[in-house]
TrEMBL record:
Organism the protein comes from: Balnearium lithotrophicum
Pfam families named among the record's database cross-references: SurA_N_3 (PF13624)
Keyword Signal: yes
The protein's name: peptidylprolyl isomerase
Alphabetically ordered keywords of this record: Isomerase, Rotamase, Signal
Amino acid sequence: MKSLILSVPVVFSLSIGAVAAEKVLAKVNGKAITEKDLDQMINSLPPNYQTLKNNPQFRKQLLQNLIKEELLYQEAIKEGIDKDPQVQKEIELMKRRILVQALVRKHIKLSPVSVSDSEAKAFYEKNKATFKDANGKTISYDVIKPFIVKSLQQQKEKQEFSRALNNYVNSVERKSKVEILTK
């Protein structure tokens, strides 16, 4: 009897957790939009929006966007747009792109890229003539340094990603049979 009494709160707390995770925020023609749906939308946004994920007004606006999207999705299905041959081709193309992107994310892991002070300073000195304010006065290195560092980091990351992607594609290609039939 004692173990039954102790297990009831555990089961109850587990079921509360499940309900909280699936909290319904809105219904569109009976289709529930949950807090989990909203969180997934927020997590899919670019990193600069992540700081707003707990802002009630931001969440409310995104919920309104989810509602509008669901309304339009339901209308598209009702009109049979999902069965249109051209739409089917576009869906298949997007599916291919999503799968390729997921494959690349899975297999290409990049290390953080850093830019040394000497690299940033050398870039500044080489391009000093381009760093002018509205009055034509040269912008000092200390002011422009964060922008130079960020730009050089992005450039290095892009080069590293391109190198890693080429290596990965080449490794897949070596294991495959590719025949080019046109000249």
